Amino acid sequence: MSEQSLRILQVSTYDTIGGAEKVAWNLFQAYRERGYGSWLAVGHKLGGDPDVFPIPNDKQRGSWSRFWMNKYSNLESTTRQPNGESRLRSLFKVLAEPGRAIDHYRGIEDFRFPGTGELLKLTPYSPDILHCHNLHGSYFDLRALPWLSRQVPLILTLHDAWLLSGHCAHSFGCERWKIGCGHCPDLRIEPPVVRDATAYNWKRKRTIYEQSQIYVSTPSQWLMKKTEQSILAPAIVESRVIPNGVDLTIFHPSDKSRIRSLLNIPQEAAVLLFAAYNVRNNIWKDYQTLRTAIDLVGKQLEGRETLFIALGEDAPPERIGQAELRLIPYQKDSAMVACYYQAADLYVHAAKADTFPNTILESLACGTPVVATAVGGIPEQIMDALTGRLTPAGDAQALASRILELLSDDMCRKNMSIAAAEDARLRFNLQSQVDTYLEWYQMLVQKEQHALPLSERLTASAYR
């Protein structure tokens, strides 16, 4: 098989929205631009790209289920729903799939997505590689992993720790994912469950993995270390740490003055940027610590306008002490997102839990130094005192101190800006990420073909 004939099917929750989804989308587009067969199968299709296929879960359900779900959907589309209609909708949902409803109320994770079995039939040609990203988000049957991993080389890229636990994407300080979960300290952590069946969920995942043969990648050493200590470890044939990359043709340094004029941002203001979906209520981010730090900064910079831009939520502007808070809705256009990084003096990222946020990489690529909390894989992104500063999680005073330190030293910030853009070019270039994955794909396909008997290798070669 020639390298250019490689056919790649990726699996993701959405085709747009979200950090993990953006990683899959960027790879999908880059492979296609290079002439490879590239497709994306998603649980929820939002865009119109013809090479993106929705996983047909609803179509694969029985006629009984489809009948009642149609009833449910018809009521769901009603603009105003009296309480009676709301209860009726719930009844329709239970009637559609009673077993699924029982699982939900018992706290059992939902794997009832029959379209997963059709994954390898969605594309016009059989894929050589199946590359899966986030598998939570109500669309994927994890029980299909053993079968799928025996049909085609299967790579799992972990963007969080859900595969390792009994329900949560990040465990914060809890270590029970190492020993079997149960007695969960917080069932509300995404993806939430209503009862503590976390020990059962953990054991069910372990059984699935024991029957699977999986190649695993993570964007950070931090997450790989967790993976190696987890129930997923016995299923791993090979693992690699492959950092996420950003498109440097979009995210790069630019003329700050020109960009500020474009965005109607005061030229002399101290501009701080933070970006996240649902900024103020995102459970992984630490908006309260960030807000307190901005208040402290504004007080110290009295006499200089302080503008805090929060990218990812639509709301009226407000004051945080002496600082102005400007909330900007989610931007689909990456070039416009890049403008906000280019306009900012600093990107400030306060998080309670994070794996390897794309926003930090995008800021570095734009030459904007980052001040961030040292959680998860973030310390692997920022070279402390060279491309940004790291602070303890939840410490608003330390966060404010680092922000003020950089705002008060123009030469230091300029040097950091140069170093940040260069580090992004060397370590976080999307094209390098693409090259690394393509090399790995090719190796896995060749390895699989050489493992086949000669007659089967010839048949497979002729078919491809």
Keywords, please?
alpha/beta; 464 residues; 14 strands; seven-stranded parallel sheet; disordered C terminus; seven-stranded mixed sheet
* Beginning-to-end CA distance, first to last residue: 7 Å
Q: What's the mean pLDDT score? A: 93
Strand count, sense and barrel status of the largest sheet are: 7 strands, parallel
Estimate the strand proportion.
15-25%
Number of strands: 14
Number of continuous helical runs: 17
Helix content: 40-55%
Structural class: alpha/beta
Principal-axes shape call: globular
The whole-angstrom Rg is 24 Å
Strand order of the largest sheet: 3-2-1-4-5-6-7
Poorly predicted sequence stretches spanning 5 or more consecutive residues:
454-464
Explained architecture:
By secondary structure, the protein is an alpha/beta fold. It is built from 17 helices and 14 strands. A seven-stranded parallel sheet has the order 3-2-1-4-5-6-7. Strands 10-11-9-8-12-13-14 form a seven-stranded mixed sheet, sandwiched between helices. A hairpin with a 2-residue loop joins strand 10 (318-320) and strand 11 (323-328).
Summarize the structure.
With 464 residues, this protein is an alpha/beta fold. It contains 17 helices and 14 strands.
What's the SSE blueprint?
Layout (H helix, E strand, L loop, with lengths): L6 E8 L4 H15 L3 E8 L7 E3 L2 H4 L2 H14 L6 H14 L1 H9 L22 E4 L12 H7 L2 E4 L40 H13 L3 E5 L2 H8 L7 E6 L14 H8 L6 E6 L11 H14 L5 E6 L6 E3 L2 E6 L5 H10 L2 E4 L8 H8 L4 E4 L4 H4 L6 E4 L4 H12 L2 H18 L2 H22 L2 H10 L1
Parallel strand pairs: 1-2, 1-4, 2-3, 4-5, 5-6, 6-7, 8-9, 8-12, 9-11, 12-13, 13-14
Antiparallel strand pairs: 10-11
Helix pairs in contact: 1-16, 3-4, 4-5, 9-11, 10-14, 12-15
